Amino acid sequence: xxxxxxxxxxxxxxxxxxxxxxxxxxxxxxxxxxxxxxxxxxxxxxxxxxxxxxxxxxxxxxxxxxxxxxxxxxxxxxxxxxxxxxxxxxxxxxxxxxxxxxxxxxxxxxxxxxxxxxxxxxxxxxxxxxxxxxxxxxxxxxxxxxxxxxxxxxxxxxxxxxxxxxxxxxxxxxxxxxxxxxxxxxxxxxxxxxxxxxxxxxxxxxxxxxxxxxxxxxxxxxxxxxxxxxxxxxxxxxxxxxxxxxxxxxxxxxxxxxxxxxxxxxxxxxxxxxxxxxxxxxxxxxxxxxxxxxxxxxxxxxxxxxxxxxxxxxxxxxxxxxxxxxxxxxxxxxxxxxxxxxxxxxxxxxxxxxxxxxxxxxxxxxxxxxxxxxxxxxxxxxxxxxxxxxxxxxxxxxxxxxxxxxxxxxxxxxxxxxxxxxxxxxxxxxxxxxxxxxxxxxxxxxxxxxxxxxxxxxxxxxxxxxxxxxxxxxxxxxxxxxxxxxxxxxxxxxxxxxxxxxx
Length: 503
Known about the structure:
Elements: H1 2-25, E1 31-41, E2 44-58, E3 64-75, E4 86-90, E5 109-111, E6 125-127, E7 137-141, E8 150-151, H2 157-164, H3 167-184, E9 192-197, H4 200-215, E10 221-225, H5 235-241, H6 244-253, H7 259-262, H8 266-287, H9 293-307, H10 311-316, H11 323-329, E11 337-338, E12 346-347, H12 361-380, H13 406-416, E13 421-427, H14 435-445, E14 455-460, H15 470-486
Helix pairs in contact: 3-4, 4-13, 5-8, 6-8
């Protein structure tokens, strides 16, 4: 009898220990904590609540299969949420946490960095005087395996891949999660916006149509920050030619262009390069190996003039300069490479020889400043306790990229919804998702031109995360404010198309 009691006591203690450990890891799929905060934005005090934690993902049978970590900022003292916009924010990767825009762009707190975006110590956060929280509430969502978001224990890898890790699987489960969030927070009446950065741009483009067609949720706007190709076909000739304006921007920044081009302002110089790209270079590239020697040499001279590279290496690459080679070659004679996602950054390789840099100078710099800041902020300000690792980048491979029609998904959503507007934001020095291809996306998304009045494009003198540069942080947030104003219909204005009747 005594041994049974001892056994029972031991089992209870063991269960208590396991429960305590689970609490420490915070593996609960449906739990949140709310704190209060305030920030001064554009000279006015803004008080808010910050709710962070996990909300479940359910399968078709109502079983919880994952918990997504999110942080939701809601301005206090708002009497009518029906007129208050809600912005749903995603980063990219795929496999990246929603940390970058959260604590460096639109949120009420931003990490401590210098005015150009480089790390400083001591690490930490500070108020974001340019946050859009004055005009909209914001939720930052972390897909499965990013941040603290996780699938349930015991889920097979093949099932995880099928359910979460692919262009269309990602869109499907996130749309369902958004539906639940909007319902729980009682935000169905509010104007709604999606913002996505990098891989987050095909995500939100696809979500715009999925939310309409499967959840009957209609948006006012989609904001694409440093967009990818969105599944829009380019072809080898266009793909090669379209890189030249970015090459010119990076070369201009590093003062590698001829004096007459270098003396021009960046955007004036780029206008010339863009016109050459569209009107001449694409046709030249289309001829491929049937280009005459004279045409090839003339093209190499023009590409050299605009890229800062020698005619010799351009001819060696048959006019088609790989991005990796460009990042290695532009400053090779000075002993540096340049960053992929922000070509203002410099890196040092083991050898000057080689076809591409040893590492991404900009990404290592960003991880240096973001990682301590987000871990500190969540624990000390948002008061969320867990022993889980915060995945800046989480395991989501292999990722199914098949059937990526997200650009056309966005076009279809706009066609169906006269309220829906699109804003594109891009950095001139981004070599990963270059600015000129973000323009090309808009041109090709709707070849009829009937939607272009609802599309706008903004460029910034920085890279992939243009908001890391203090000057661009201010202007890019202001552009979002303007976009919200312009995409908000007047009260009673119907969502309808009107045809002109010729008499």
